[in-house]
Amino acid sequence: xxADIIRDSTLDNEISDPNLVSWYGDDDPDNPRNWSPTKRAFxxxxxxxxxxxxxxxxxxxxxxxxxxxxxxxxxxxxATLGLTLYDIGIGPMFLSPMQELPFFLFVxxxxxxxxxxxxQTILAFRFLTGFFGSPALATGxxxxxxxxxxxxxxxxxxxxxxxxxxGPIAGPVIGGFAAQAKGWRWPQYELIWLSAFSFxxxxxxxxxxxxxTILLRRAQRLRKLTANQQLMSKGEKDxxxxxxxxxxxxxxxxxxxxxKEPVLMFANVYLGFVSGLPFIGFFVSAAATYTFYALYQxxxxxxxxxxxxxxxKSLAPEVRLEIGLxxxxxxxxxxxxFGFGSRENVHWIVPIIGASLYLPGIxxxxxxxxxxxxxxxxxxxxxxxxxxxxxxxxxxxxxxLFGRAFFTNLGLxxxxxxxxxxxxxxxxxxxxxxxxxxxxxxxxxxxxxx
Length: 450
Fold this sequence. Notes:
Elements (H helix, E strand, L loop, with lengths): L1 H7 L11 E2 L15 H23 L5 H8 L3 H12 L3 H5 L4 H9 L2 H4 L4 H15 L2 H12 L2 H33 L3 H20 L5 H16 L5 E2 H5 L5 H16 L2 H14 L7 H28 L11 H6 L2 H12 L7 H28 L4 H17 L1 H12 L1 H31 L8
């Protein structure tokens, strides 16, 4: 019996390494990619709910700002700091290896905000909730890659991204009703109700999806059962002889190290600037955009991937940027229509159309860059997304501080035109990565080889 357990716990190369604990063949039911479609969809929903919860926490604060100004006699800039501090995306750089504890602290640290008697308490705990909640993007995207193969990943990441994009859209709407009816504290009540429900849901129903962790637990069970202390998973063998401190240090520093990669630097800076532009959209626009993206993936990307596979090659990550380059035109177009259409003598539908065009641009940009960086750095997806979150959130977080003065002093039309010009200036980033990205990857020891 012991021999059977040991034999079943190894891969095809177990003759050379009989103590390597791995999957029980290609159809191992413990492998997340072999889970039933229903289970994988349920896990994906759980991950998307967590992401939506974290992202709605940013914008749901905005309806509370007038009440905070009134109650604590502070300026608009001081009150808006609660939004800025929440959006600073440094959390994933330290917490991306973890999930449950940061999420728990995200829930708990909302209580002092609700009971706050001064602005300092609000600002301090808005920073802490944002810090502990921000790893959702990094861990969420990486978890999707754990349970779905590359051929399906673009579709599910697209659905998951709706949670990230939809959170800031829904926040002001949901929080606005509560703030008007019950006061500025009630949007925070809504956030703690949603996040507490999501946390309990996660703890009860979300299984482990990370392959090295699953195999580590299997190896621990087999060592206990067989008394053979030589049985180890690949992750244990790779880190054998290293201290816990050095392993943890590597996990924490990797996002900072990868952030220096030229490919990631260009992608992160671009997405950061675009995310800081006026973020207005509609869920119907998101649904239409995702439908288009799914068709694009099915009819254009998949056939190219199949041809590359048939030729013994893999699809170049730069292909993922093509749709992003086209979608970049939506952002300045949207800003110009919205800015110059928001006048008394212009029909109200014009700025609505302009606003609706913004979401396809930002969504397809978001999706193409996420798919690109994870395809270019498949072994370090969580760390890559953590670095991306830092750049994007840090740049975007400062925009609310000067946004009101910016539009008031310049006027809605000229201010929107200026932002449209900035977005146009960022478009060469896509083109540069599409043209020279393979050269940058060839010089990297972390990226997938061209």
